[in-house]
Amino acid sequence: MQACAAIRKVASLVAAAIAAMLPLPAFAQAYQCSLPRSVEVPRVSTEAPRRLRVTGYTLALSWSPEFCRFRESQRRHARQCSGREGRFGFTAHGLWPESGGGWPQWCGGRDMSAVELRKSLCISPDASLVTRQWEKHGTCMANAPATYLKVTRILYNGLRWPDFVRISREDDLTAGTIRTRLADANPGWFPEAIGVHLDRKGWLEELRLCYDKRFMPKACDRRRFGAGDEHAAKIWRGL
């Protein structure tokens, strides 16, 4: 696996990069969150491997109020959407290695442990999603799920979050405004490295942060960039 040698040191490298860009404390994105006492590791159906040379990474961040908009009563999404175990802003959908327009996937690796899975449930509150992200994407960039999840947490916790509830009330809100507000809050970031994905009606669904092989911000390609700066945007507050 071509990325494994670099991944052995990636946690310390990422932490150092974040420290250099981020002189101030990060703002939490879980309005409140309680970890379960125990968790079971869901089973994941794997697919044929797609082993490609890793040239960069994408951190996909889901806007939880929009995701939960019509899922509050669904048992499948109870932890994230019911409000009983937390209220969330942006959650980590996943960390994806990319290969110049392609996605390495299903490379095969160690099984997820319940201990490691539990540690990530305040940044990614869906156990099935976390497990699938490891199997589908993480196995192509790390030997062990603990490494993959640690890097994801470091990247996520290194971000400073502007007040997206306030931003949602701005007049003439656009995808470009969302990019600019997040870039302004995070030294070292720039709007071209921030993908903004809207649904067909213009509601914010996801951000995709683009990194190079050293986990430094990199301009997104068209697919990851999403909506153009001029696209009108709306943010569902949900609270």
List the helices and strands and how they pair.
Layout: H1 4-7, H2 10-21, E1 30-33, E2 56-63, H3 64-67, H4 78-81, E3 86-88, E4 90-98, H5 114-119, H6 127-136, H7 145-157, H8 164-167, H9 175-185, E5 194-198, E6 204-212, H10 222-225
Antiparallel strand pairs: 1-3, 2-4, 2-6, 5-6
Helix pairs in contact: 2-7
- Beta-sheet strand percentage? 15-25%
CATH superfamily label: Ribonuclease T2-like
- For the biggest β-sheet, the strand order reads 4-2-6-5
Number of domains: 1
What is the count of β-strands?
6
Report the end-to-end length measured between terminal Cα atoms. 44 Å
- Series of H and E elements: HHEEHHEEHHHHHEEH
CATH architecture assignment name: Alpha-Beta Complex
- Described by the principal axes of the CA atoms, the overall outline is globular
Per the CATH scheme, the topology name is: Ribonuclease Rh, Chain A
Computed structural class = alpha+beta
Return the CATH class.
Answer: Alpha Beta
Helix content: 25-40%
Largest sheet: 4 strands, antiparallel
The number of helical elements comes to 10
| Radius of gyration computed on alpha carbons | 17 Å
Return residue spans where pLDDT drops below 50 for at least 5 consecutive residues: 1-6, 17-28
What would the average pLDDT be, to the nearest integer? 89
